[in-house]
Description:
Distance between the termini: 87 Å
CATH class of the largest domain: Mainly Beta
Strand content: 25-35%
Order of helices and strands: HHHEEEEEHHEEEEHEEEEEEEEEEEEH
CATH topology of the largest domain: Elongation Factor Tu (Ef-tu), domain 3
Strand order of the largest sheet: 2-9-14-13-12-15
Amino acid sequence: MKPNQLYSKIKTSTGNKTFAPSILRGMKKICPKGKIAWSAIILGILIIIAVVYFTMRPRQQAAQLPTVEVETTKTSSVNIYGEYVGRIRAQQFVEIHARVEGYLEAMLFKEGSYIQKGQTLFIIDPRLYKAHANKARAQLNKARAQAQKAERDLKRIRPLFELNAASQLDLDNAVAAYESAMAEVVVAEADLTQAELTLGYTRVNSPISGYISERVADIGTLVGPSGGKSLLATVVKSDSVRVDFSMTALDYLRSKDRNVNIGASDSTRKRNSFVTITLADGSIYPYEGNVDFADPQVDPKTGTFSVRAEMPNPDHSLLPGEFTKVKVLLDVHENAIKIPNRALVVEKGGAYVYVVRPDSVVERRFVELGPEIGNETIVERGLAKGEKLVVEGYHKLTHGMKVNPIDAVVKEDDQTEPSNN
Length: 421
């Protein structure tokens, strides 16, 4: 290789225009022009070029591990609820009817007010029924007088018969007259009792305590069970109300294997079912009710069975007849693992999550899912307590990849338990 060619190669390799001439000038001074010397020089130059290249080239940075956010799985008891449409019903709903016929004479209450049991509400014209009672009382007095006369006659005849001063026929007639008179007394007493009861029905009293509706019949109207209006008003007892709703037969069958008993209190179960309701304005009613009845048979037309809950209503904010949304405790999952829905990957083959092992290697793990609760889902199988679950950044992961896990920031909204469906 000629010096000019060597000069060009050194210049090209180093990229330094002043470095190559300096090397050549030094070579000419210290080396002879023999072929062996030039070969050694060329070898030395190549070594120098390699050292300079590897020393001055930019170093590649080490590959960075993907950063993912993880949460540590925990166990807790989770309530499972069902939501249904319910209807409010009064605990007692009594219709006030006129039991005797007559003209409505007075109304002794304020419509919509609270009334006491036994309070007089209406008065029906009592004059006719007072006359019937007086007549029955007179008939009773007459019957008693006749009975007393028959008793005196018998007392006179009996000694005479013993002295053979009266015949057997006379004695028999006296005994029959006395017994007939006593029977008439019993009949007259019954007639008087009936007449007094009928007279009492002219004062219409409330059978229960509660709130009364407006009157159905006006004053002066002919009322009664036969010719006139029978219904006068209604009384509602709503200090506590009943909530009626329907559940599917599948819910009933599943309840057999749950920790919650639907329909009655059961000391063998850990928990009994309760309900909460949502008012018309969307607010939650502050009191809870107990499910106290479940129909033992399923309606074949709808495939549902009726369920009833009793709820306190001290403020009378629940009105009988209104519809409401009912949330019922159906089950309690004990020691359940809940995971955020954002950590789940659902495919046709199933659902899986990414779990970070202690050596920071991720593992794709298929899980069996349970009920969905708001923004979280219960995992039935596949996860254990204390494992680190990837909740953010799983889209860039593959099974077996090493990652840089950091703890996820738990939001306040995630700490509160949402309504369950």
